[in-house]
Design a protein that fits this description.
Order of helices and strands: EHEHEHEHEHH
CATH architecture: 3-Layer(aba) Sandwich
CATH superfamily: HUPs
Helix content: 40-55%
CATH class: Alpha Beta
Number of strands: 5
Bound molecules: adenosine-5'-diphosphate
CATH topology: Rossmann fold
Shape: globular
Oligomer: single chain
Radius of gyration: 15 Å
Length: 160
């Protein structure tokens, strides 16, 4: 049986923290699907297609990772993809309550699916998409915080 893990998130945009989690998970599973959430409730800087394309460019070194866009419940996508593991990243304590609530909600609606929390590496625990956008909007340095293609995309987006 092939082991498939799904890593859902906004990825608006993908950061080096996300890339680190994906690199580490890709070693543990046959396939990792990075799932870009297309939410009608959350406004984003990049469209779902743009976010997908930036993730693909950032992960071109990994053969067993694919990127998909989904607008519904993650657990519904999981059934379609035949996966039983949701990956989420944990940075500091502030992430914990949100992740615990989400994991329990998902357990309630799909008990066969497990949420696996992966600790951020120490060098990335402070990196967030929101922080990166704030830096970009104020001409702050982005080196090492996001992949090169994201620096370029942020630059173009902000110039527009
Ligand atoms: P969401 O809006 O679903 O929280 P994000 O794109 O912000 O989407 O994050 C997706 C997942 O990646 C979340 O579980 C989040 O905690 C985790 N994450 C975000 N930044 C980092 C980081 N620097 N290191 C490890 N995990 C992270």
């Amino acid at each position: 049986m092939s082991r498939v893990a799904v890593y859902p998130g906004s990825f608006d945009p993908i950061t080096s923290g996300h890339v680190d989690i994906i690199n580490r998970i890709a070693r543990q599973y046959d396939q990792v699907i990075v799932l870009v959430a297309q939410s009608s409730q959350k406004s984003s800087m990049f469209s779902a297609e743009e976010r997908k394309s930036l993730i693909e460019k950032s992960l071109s070194h990994l053969q067993n990772v694919k990127v998909d866009i989904f607008g519904g419940l993650t657990v519904d996508y999981m059934k379609k993809a035949n996966s039983k593991v949701i990956i989420r990243g944990l940075r500091a304590v502030v992430d914990f309550e949100y992740e615990l609530t989400m994991a329990n909600m998902n357990r309630k609606i799909a008990p066969e699916i497990e949420t696996l929390l992966v600790f951020a590496s120490p060098e990335f625990y402070y990196v967030s998409s929101r922080g990166v956008k704030e830096l970009a909007l104020n001409n702050g340095p982005l080196k090492d915080l996001v992949p090169e293609c994201v620096i370029k995309a942020l630059d173009e987006k902000i110039k527009k």
